[in-house]
Amino acid sequence: MQSASKVLDRVLVLEMVRVTEAAAIAASSLVGRGDEKAADAAAVEAMREALNDLYMDGTVVIGEGERDEAPMLFIGEKVGSAPGKGPKIDIALDPLEGTTITAKAGPNALAVLAIAEEGCLLNAPDVYMDKLAVGPGYPAGVIDLDKSPTENIAAIAAAKGVQPNEVIACVLDRPRHEKLIAELRGIGCGVVLIGDGDVAGVIATTDPDTTIDVYMGSGGAPEGVLACAALRCVGGQFKGRLLFRNDDERARARKWGIDDLDKVYDLDELASGDCIFAATGVTDGSLLEGVKRKGKVMTTESVVMRSSSGTVRWVRGEHRIG
User: Which SUPFAM superfamilies match (predicted)?
Assistant: First the structure.
Protein backbone atom coordinates (compact mmCIF):
# COMPACT_ATOMS: atom_id res chain seq x y z
CA MET A 1 0.00 0.00 0.00
CA GLN A 2 1.31 3.46 -0.87
CA SER A 3 1.89 6.09 1.77
CA ALA A 4 -0.56 8.97 2.03
CA SER A 5 2.01 11.37 0.61
CA LYS A 6 2.58 9.15 -2.42
CA VAL A 7 -1.14 8.89 -3.06
CA LEU A 8 -1.73 12.62 -2.86
CA ASP A 9 1.29 13.40 -5.01
CA ARG A 10 -0.87 12.31 -7.94
CA VAL A 11 -3.45 14.98 -7.22
CA LEU A 12 -1.66 18.26 -7.74
CA VAL A 13 -2.11 20.82 -4.99
CA LEU A 14 -3.03 23.55 -7.47
CA GLU A 15 -5.79 21.37 -8.91
CA MET A 16 -7.58 21.75 -5.58
CA VAL A 17 -7.40 25.51 -5.97
CA ARG A 18 -8.98 25.26 -9.42
CA VAL A 19 -11.89 23.39 -7.83
CA THR A 20 -12.53 25.99 -5.12
CA GLU A 21 -12.04 28.83 -7.62
CA ALA A 22 -14.74 27.37 -9.85
CA ALA A 23 -17.21 27.17 -6.95
CA ALA A 24 -16.39 30.67 -5.70
CA ILE A 25 -16.78 32.25 -9.13
CA ALA A 26 -20.12 30.52 -9.66
CA ALA A 27 -21.45 31.69 -6.29
CA SER A 28 -20.15 35.24 -6.72
CA SER A 29 -22.78 36.10 -9.30
CA LEU A 30 -25.39 35.69 -6.57
CA VAL A 31 -23.73 37.74 -3.82
CA GLY A 32 -26.28 40.09 -2.26
CA ARG A 33 -29.18 38.66 -4.26
CA GLY A 34 -30.97 37.25 -1.20
CA ASP A 35 -31.23 33.70 -2.55
CA GLU A 36 -29.24 31.28 -0.41
CA LYS A 37 -30.38 28.15 -2.25
CA ALA A 38 -29.51 29.49 -5.68
CA ALA A 39 -26.04 30.57 -4.54
CA ASP A 40 -25.37 27.19 -2.95
CA ALA A 41 -26.65 25.30 -5.99
CA ALA A 42 -24.40 27.30 -8.33
CA ALA A 43 -21.34 26.57 -6.17
CA VAL A 44 -22.20 22.87 -5.86
CA GLU A 45 -22.66 22.39 -9.59
CA ALA A 46 -19.39 24.15 -10.41
CA MET A 47 -17.41 22.24 -7.78
CA ARG A 48 -18.80 18.90 -8.91
CA GLU A 49 -17.91 19.57 -12.54
CA ALA A 50 -14.36 20.58 -11.57
CA LEU A 51 -13.86 17.52 -9.37
CA ASN A 52 -14.99 15.22 -12.15
CA ASP A 53 -12.21 16.57 -14.37
CA LEU A 54 -9.52 15.28 -11.99
CA TYR A 55 -7.75 11.95 -12.42
CA MET A 56 -8.75 10.24 -9.17
CA ASP A 57 -11.18 7.80 -7.62
CA GLY A 58 -12.74 10.19 -5.14
CA THR A 59 -15.43 9.64 -2.53
CA VAL A 60 -17.29 12.49 -0.82
CA VAL A 61 -17.22 11.82 2.93
CA ILE A 62 -18.35 15.31 3.96
CA GLY A 63 -20.84 16.79 1.52
CA GLU A 64 -24.20 18.40 0.99
CA GLY A 65 -26.14 15.74 2.88
CA GLU A 66 -27.19 12.17 2.22
CA ARG A 67 -28.25 10.83 -1.17
CA ASP A 68 -31.95 11.44 -0.59
CA GLU A 69 -31.31 14.98 0.70
CA ALA A 70 -28.98 16.39 -1.95
CA PRO A 71 -28.98 16.10 -5.73
CA MET A 72 -25.21 16.59 -6.01
CA LEU A 73 -22.09 16.06 -3.91
CA PHE A 74 -23.93 13.94 -1.37
CA ILE A 75 -22.10 11.82 1.17
CA GLY A 76 -20.87 8.70 -0.55
CA GLU A 77 -20.95 10.16 -4.07
CA LYS A 78 -18.10 9.12 -6.33
CA VAL A 79 -16.25 11.87 -8.18
CA GLY A 80 -13.21 12.03 -10.45
CA SER A 81 -12.46 10.87 -13.97
CA ALA A 82 -10.86 7.54 -13.04
CA PRO A 83 -13.19 5.41 -10.89
CA GLY A 84 -11.46 2.17 -9.96
CA LYS A 85 -8.20 3.31 -11.55
CA GLY A 86 -7.03 6.58 -10.04
CA PRO A 87 -5.77 7.15 -6.49
CA LYS A 88 -8.44 6.61 -3.85
CA ILE A 89 -9.14 9.95 -2.24
CA ASP A 90 -11.57 10.98 0.50
CA ILE A 91 -13.06 14.43 0.04
CA ALA A 92 -14.60 16.83 2.54
CA LEU A 93 -16.19 19.89 0.99
CA ASP A 94 -18.41 22.86 1.48
CA PRO A 95 -18.92 24.47 -1.93
CA LEU A 96 -20.30 27.58 -0.22
CA GLU A 97 -19.50 27.98 3.44
CA GLY A 98 -21.70 30.90 4.35
CA THR A 99 -24.82 30.71 2.19
CA THR A 100 -26.56 33.36 4.30
CA ILE A 101 -23.44 35.52 4.20
CA THR A 102 -23.43 35.31 0.41
CA ALA A 103 -27.11 36.10 0.09
CA LYS A 104 -26.62 39.20 2.27
CA ALA A 105 -23.19 40.16 0.87
CA GLY A 106 -21.58 39.74 4.27
CA PRO A 107 -17.92 38.92 5.00
CA ASN A 108 -16.04 35.60 5.10
CA ALA A 109 -18.00 33.44 2.62
CA LEU A 110 -15.70 30.74 1.24
CA ALA A 111 -15.60 27.79 -1.12
CA VAL A 112 -13.80 25.09 0.87
CA LEU A 113 -12.32 21.68 0.09
CA ALA A 114 -10.11 19.16 1.88
CA ILE A 115 -8.75 15.86 0.60
CA ALA A 116 -6.85 13.02 2.21
CA GLU A 117 -6.00 9.41 1.58
CA GLU A 118 -8.91 6.99 1.90
CA GLY A 119 -10.01 6.59 5.52
CA CYS A 120 -8.24 9.69 6.90
CA LEU A 121 -11.22 12.05 7.24
CA LEU A 122 -13.96 11.33 9.77
CA ASN A 123 -17.27 10.68 8.06
CA ALA A 124 -19.05 13.11 10.38
CA PRO A 125 -22.85 13.20 10.34
CA ASP A 126 -24.62 16.46 9.62
CA VAL A 127 -25.22 17.34 13.27
CA TYR A 128 -23.84 19.98 15.60
CA MET A 129 -20.43 19.72 17.22
CA ASP A 130 -19.15 21.49 20.32
CA LYS A 131 -15.81 22.95 19.23
CA LEU A 132 -12.74 24.36 20.92
CA ALA A 133 -9.70 25.39 18.87
CA VAL A 134 -6.44 27.28 19.23
CA GLY A 135 -3.60 27.94 16.83
CA PRO A 136 0.01 26.73 17.01
CA GLY A 137 2.47 27.46 19.79
CA TYR A 138 0.55 26.26 22.84
CA PRO A 139 1.55 23.34 25.06
CA ALA A 140 -0.33 20.10 24.42
CA GLY A 141 -3.58 19.86 26.34
CA VAL A 142 -4.02 23.59 26.88
CA ILE A 143 -7.69 23.30 25.89
CA ASP A 144 -10.21 20.84 27.34
CA LEU A 145 -13.90 20.51 26.41
CA ASP A 146 -14.67 19.09 29.84
CA LYS A 147 -13.56 22.36 31.45
CA SER A 148 -15.57 25.56 31.61
CA PRO A 149 -15.00 28.48 29.24
CA THR A 150 -13.51 30.41 32.17
CA GLU A 151 -11.03 27.62 32.90
CA ASN A 152 -10.03 27.33 29.23
CA ILE A 153 -9.49 31.08 28.90
CA ALA A 154 -7.38 31.02 32.08
CA ALA A 155 -5.24 28.19 30.67
CA ILE A 156 -4.75 29.99 27.36
CA ALA A 157 -3.89 33.24 29.14
CA ALA A 158 -1.35 31.47 31.35
CA ALA A 159 0.27 29.84 28.32
CA LYS A 160 0.52 33.23 26.61
CA GLY A 161 1.76 34.96 29.75
CA VAL A 162 -1.14 37.44 29.79
CA GLN A 163 -4.26 38.10 31.84
CA PRO A 164 -7.61 36.53 30.83
CA ASN A 165 -8.94 39.95 29.81
CA GLU A 166 -6.25 40.07 27.11
CA VAL A 167 -7.54 36.91 25.41
CA ILE A 168 -9.91 37.20 22.44
CA ALA A 169 -12.40 34.46 21.54
CA CYS A 170 -14.32 33.95 18.31
CA VAL A 171 -17.92 32.75 18.69
CA LEU A 172 -20.79 32.25 16.26
CA ASP A 173 -23.49 34.84 16.95
CA ARG A 174 -26.35 32.51 17.84
CA PRO A 175 -28.99 32.51 20.62
CA ARG A 176 -27.60 29.17 21.83
CA HIS A 177 -24.33 30.93 22.71
CA GLU A 178 -25.83 33.64 24.94
CA LYS A 179 -24.57 32.04 28.16
CA LEU A 180 -21.14 31.37 26.68
CA ILE A 181 -20.80 34.97 25.50
CA ALA A 182 -21.97 36.31 28.88
CA GLU A 183 -19.45 34.13 30.72
CA LEU A 184 -16.59 35.22 28.47
CA ARG A 185 -17.44 38.89 28.79
CA GLY A 186 -17.91 38.43 32.53
CA ILE A 187 -14.21 37.61 32.92
CA GLY A 188 -13.22 40.47 30.63
CA CYS A 189 -12.44 38.34 27.62
CA GLY A 190 -12.87 39.96 24.22
CA VAL A 191 -15.47 38.29 22.00
CA VAL A 192 -15.49 38.50 18.21
CA LEU A 193 -18.96 37.50 17.00
CA ILE A 194 -19.35 36.10 13.49
CA GLY A 195 -22.63 35.61 11.69
CA ASP A 196 -21.63 32.46 9.85
CA GLY A 197 -18.59 30.63 8.53
CA ASP A 198 -17.01 28.79 11.43
CA VAL A 199 -14.35 27.17 9.23
CA ALA A 200 -12.90 30.66 8.76
CA GLY A 201 -13.41 31.28 12.48
CA VAL A 202 -11.29 28.28 13.45
CA ILE A 203 -8.58 29.10 10.90
CA ALA A 204 -8.47 32.67 12.24
CA THR A 205 -6.87 31.34 15.44
CA THR A 206 -3.75 30.45 13.41
CA ASP A 207 -3.21 33.99 12.07
CA PRO A 208 -1.78 36.52 14.56
CA ASP A 209 -3.10 39.38 12.42
CA THR A 210 -6.68 38.47 13.37
CA THR A 211 -5.83 38.80 17.11
CA ILE A 212 -8.18 35.83 17.74
CA ASP A 213 -6.75 33.37 20.27
CA VAL A 214 -9.46 30.73 20.55
CA TYR A 215 -12.60 29.53 18.82
CA MET A 216 -15.45 28.39 21.06
CA GLY A 217 -19.00 27.15 20.66
CA SER A 218 -21.10 24.79 18.61
CA GLY A 219 -21.43 24.59 14.84
CA GLY A 220 -21.73 21.99 12.12
CA ALA A 221 -19.74 18.79 12.59
CA PRO A 222 -18.81 18.59 8.88
CA GLU A 223 -17.30 22.06 9.12
CA GLY A 224 -15.31 20.82 12.11
CA VAL A 225 -13.65 18.18 9.94
CA LEU A 226 -12.82 20.77 7.27
CA ALA A 227 -11.33 23.10 9.85
CA CYS A 228 -9.23 20.27 11.28
CA ALA A 229 -7.80 19.52 7.85
CA ALA A 230 -6.57 23.12 7.75
CA LEU A 231 -5.20 22.99 11.30
CA ARG A 232 -3.31 19.80 10.43
CA CYS A 233 -1.44 21.83 7.82
CA VAL A 234 -0.54 24.90 9.86
CA GLY A 235 -0.58 23.66 13.44
CA GLY A 236 -3.00 24.06 16.29
CA GLN A 237 -5.20 22.09 18.64
CA PHE A 238 -8.85 21.13 18.31
CA LYS A 239 -11.36 19.38 20.54
CA GLY A 240 -14.80 18.38 19.31
CA ARG A 241 -17.82 16.53 20.66
CA LEU A 242 -20.90 15.68 18.62
CA LEU A 243 -24.16 17.17 19.89
CA PHE A 244 -27.48 15.44 19.28
CA ARG A 245 -30.91 17.01 19.50
CA ASN A 246 -32.97 13.86 19.04
CA ASP A 247 -32.91 10.11 18.42
CA ASP A 248 -32.94 10.59 14.64
CA GLU A 249 -29.60 12.40 14.82
CA ARG A 250 -28.16 9.68 17.05
CA ALA A 251 -29.31 7.06 14.56
CA ARG A 252 -27.69 9.01 11.71
CA ALA A 253 -24.38 9.05 13.57
CA ARG A 254 -24.51 5.29 14.13
CA LYS A 255 -25.33 4.81 10.46
CA TRP A 256 -22.03 6.46 9.58
CA GLY A 257 -20.08 4.21 11.93
CA ILE A 258 -19.90 6.33 15.07
CA ASP A 259 -20.45 4.11 18.09
CA ASP A 260 -19.28 6.32 20.98
CA LEU A 261 -21.70 9.24 20.82
CA ASP A 262 -20.07 11.05 23.76
CA LYS A 263 -16.50 10.86 22.48
CA VAL A 264 -14.29 13.94 22.55
CA TYR A 265 -12.32 14.02 19.30
CA ASP A 266 -8.81 15.33 18.96
CA LEU A 267 -7.52 17.00 15.82
CA ASP A 268 -5.86 13.84 14.47
CA GLU A 269 -9.02 11.80 14.95
CA LEU A 270 -10.98 14.11 12.66
CA ALA A 271 -8.32 14.59 10.00
CA SER A 272 -5.25 12.36 9.85
CA GLY A 273 -2.48 11.41 7.43
CA ASP A 274 -1.50 13.75 4.62
CA CYS A 275 -4.18 16.41 4.09
CA ILE A 276 -4.58 19.11 1.50
CA PHE A 277 -6.88 22.02 2.34
CA ALA A 278 -7.95 24.69 -0.15
CA ALA A 279 -10.27 27.68 0.11
CA THR A 280 -11.22 30.53 -2.21
CA GLY A 281 -12.90 33.71 -1.02
CA VAL A 282 -16.40 34.41 -2.28
CA THR A 283 -16.84 37.63 -0.31
CA ASP A 284 -14.11 39.69 1.35
CA GLY A 285 -13.06 38.40 4.75
CA SER A 286 -10.33 38.17 7.34
CA LEU A 287 -8.75 35.19 5.57
CA LEU A 288 -9.23 35.93 1.86
CA GLU A 289 -10.49 38.58 -0.52
CA GLY A 290 -13.67 37.80 -2.38
CA VAL A 291 -14.22 37.41 -6.11
CA LYS A 292 -13.94 40.70 -8.01
CA ARG A 293 -15.06 41.45 -11.54
CA LYS A 294 -13.33 44.14 -13.57
CA GLY A 295 -14.59 44.23 -17.11
CA LYS A 296 -13.92 40.84 -18.64
CA VAL A 297 -11.56 39.72 -15.90
CA MET A 298 -12.52 38.08 -12.60
CA THR A 299 -9.93 37.89 -9.82
CA THR A 300 -9.86 35.32 -7.04
CA GLU A 301 -7.76 34.86 -3.93
CA SER A 302 -7.16 31.37 -2.54
CA VAL A 303 -5.08 29.55 0.03
CA VAL A 304 -3.92 25.96 -0.26
CA MET A 305 -2.15 24.06 2.50
CA ARG A 306 -0.54 20.64 2.78
CA SER A 307 0.16 18.84 6.03
CA SER A 308 3.02 16.58 4.90
CA SER A 309 5.17 19.52 3.82
CA GLY A 310 3.73 22.21 6.08
CA THR A 311 3.48 24.53 3.08
CA VAL A 312 0.92 27.30 2.74
CA ARG A 313 0.48 28.90 -0.67
CA TRP A 314 -1.51 32.04 -1.38
CA VAL A 315 -2.81 32.05 -4.94
CA ARG A 316 -4.21 35.04 -6.79
CA GLY A 317 -5.96 34.13 -10.02
CA GLU A 318 -7.16 36.11 -13.02
CA HIS A 319 -9.94 34.53 -15.05
CA ARG A 320 -10.95 35.95 -18.41
CA ILE A 321 -14.63 35.65 -19.22
CA GLY A 322 -16.75 36.26 -22.26
Answer: Carbohydrate phosphatase
